[in-house]
Specification:
Elements (H helix, E strand, L loop, with lengths): L3 H12 L5 E10 L11 E2 L1 E14 L4 E6 L4 E6 L10 H14 L7 E7 L9 H17 L5 H16 L6 H8 L4 E6 L5 E5 L4 E7 L7 H19 L9 H7 L5 H25 L3 H19 L4 H12 L3 E6 L7 E7 L3 H16 L4 E5 L6 E4 L1
Parallel strand pairs: 4-6
Antiparallel strand pairs: 1-3, 1-13, 2-7, 3-6, 4-5, 7-8, 9-11, 9-12, 10-11
Helix pairs in contact: 2-3, 2-4, 3-4, 3-5, 4-5, 6-8, 8-9, 10-11
The structure holds adenosine-5'-diphosphate and magnesium ion.
Magnesium ion (MG) binds next to loops.
């Protein structure tokens, strides 16, 4: 699981020298609070054991040289002048460099080897892991202090403005700020976060449907648009400011689709705060129930699930060891997350995976994970 030694070997093989340091930044899974980050609401993600590792050697000049072991490719650019070229993993790193320079940080060059095990494009945010690992590498070699919130914003800016993906702030915040054994209740408007301990006696199981998001960008932008329309209707900047009471008093005046989208966002905020409370009380039953309610709302009101996710979540819920399950991430494929009694976890993994395979002819990947720390330096 920990690829620290492997990335050092890869660095040695490629550069014929030892790295100075190793940094890593995790992917994430969101326990509850889906499609609310861009509405300024509350999310409850945790950093997972799967991450991006980078072995790094300081350079005296302005060159950044990289080898991606996962892609078997190299890339380089000069910090004195670089521009966007074409869709490529290196652009995430150039975007981070650009955002850091814009914020006034003086950057130093480095040689890096990168190795990651966050599955790409399944909703566990391999991109945020890449961005935050790169930010950590720049911070270490350039000697500026690590401010996790600022670095999360840098990662988001890279993705929004340089790579051109319209993501919210959740992924970068949890990859920067995660704490072992805890989920992170994040207010996506103020960016204030609270670490909330995971309940005892349960496991977090991530189940990948093995279906990938198609048309996700247009659907995502359409949802954002619909949320903005609802916010305009209520005369607020962000839907987060509409209470359930206010919503239910006026919802009949909204067009059907806008009403459903807003209903998801507004009720999801309530569920997420309740889920954090349940975790603080070590009440995994309530947490599980709220996860299931979140899934229903995403499926029926926000309409971002798909058949594979619904099948997988239904099979998970039908297992006696399961306290709750839902789709997680942007939707239209990717992963589900389940809260499972510890003693039943092994059977759950085996039986739900087999049932899903039988129902769909698709092979689900299963990841059981604890919650880890956010982006960090490992050695050297
Ligand atoms: P996700 O949901 O996993 O964040 P994205 O499409 O947002 O999916 O990001 C995936 C992109 O991030 C990849 O296409 C690649 O450019 C970059 N990336 C992710 N993991 C790695 C890796 N291990 N090595 C190099 N680039 C990576
Ligand atoms: Mg991503």
């Amino acid at each position: 699981m920990n690829l620290s030694n492997d990335v050092v070997s890869a660095f040695r093989d490629h550069y014929g020298a030892e790295p100075d340091i190793v940094v890593c930044a995790p992917g994430r899974v969101n326990l509850i609070g889906e499609h609310v980050d861009y509405n300024g609401g509350f999310v409850l993600p945790m950093a997972i054991e799967r991450a991006m590792w980078m072995a790094v050697r300081y350079r005296p000049d302005q060159e950044v040289h990289l080898v991606s072991c996962d892609f078997g490719q190299t890339a380089h650019f000069n910090l004195d002048g670089f521009e966007y070229l074409k869709p490529h993993w290196c652009e995430y790193i150039k975007g981070v460099a650009h955002a850091l320079q814009k914020r006034g940080h003086t950057l130093q060059g480095w040689d890096g080897a990168m190795l990651g095990n966050v599955p790409r494009g399944s909703g566990l945010s391999s991109s945020a892991a890449l961005e935050l690992a790169a930010a950590k590498a720049f911070s270490e070699v350039s000697g500026f202090p690590w401010d996790p919130v600022e670095m999360a914003l840098v990662g988001q800016e890279s993705e929004n403005k340089w790579v051109g993906v319209n993501c919210g702030i959740m992924d970068q915040m949890i990859s920067a700020c995660g704490r072992a054994g805890h989920a992170y209740l994040l207010d996506c408007r103020s960016l204030e976060g609270t670490h909330v301990p995971l309940p005892t006696g349960v496991k977090i199981v991530i189940l990948d449907t093995a279906t990938r998001r198609g048309l996700v960008d247009s659907a995502y932008n359409e949802r954002r648009q619909q949320c903005e329309e609802a916010a305009v209707f209520f005369g607020v900047e962000l839907l987060r400011d509409v209470t359930p009471e206010r919503f239910f008093a006026r919802e009949k005046d909204l067009p059907e689709l806008t009403r459903k989208r807003a209903r998801h966002v507004i009720t999801e905020d309530v569920r997420t705060l309740a889920a954090a409370d349940a975790m603080r009380m070590n009440d995994s039953e309530t947490l599980g129930r709220l996860m299931w309610e979140s899934h229903v709302s995403l499926r029926d009101d926000f309409e971002v699930s798909n058949d594979a996710l619904n099948t997988l979540v239904d099979l998970a819920m039908a297992h006696e060891g399961c306290l709750g399950a839902r789709m997680t991430g942007a939707g239209f494929g990717g992963c589900a997350v389940a809260l499972v009694r510890e003693e039943a976890a092994a059977a759950f993994e085996r039986e739900v995976a087999a049932a899903y395979q039988q129902a769909t002819q698709l092979e689900p990947a299963v990841y059981v994970t604890g919650a880890t720390d956010g982006a960090r330096r490992l050695q050297g």
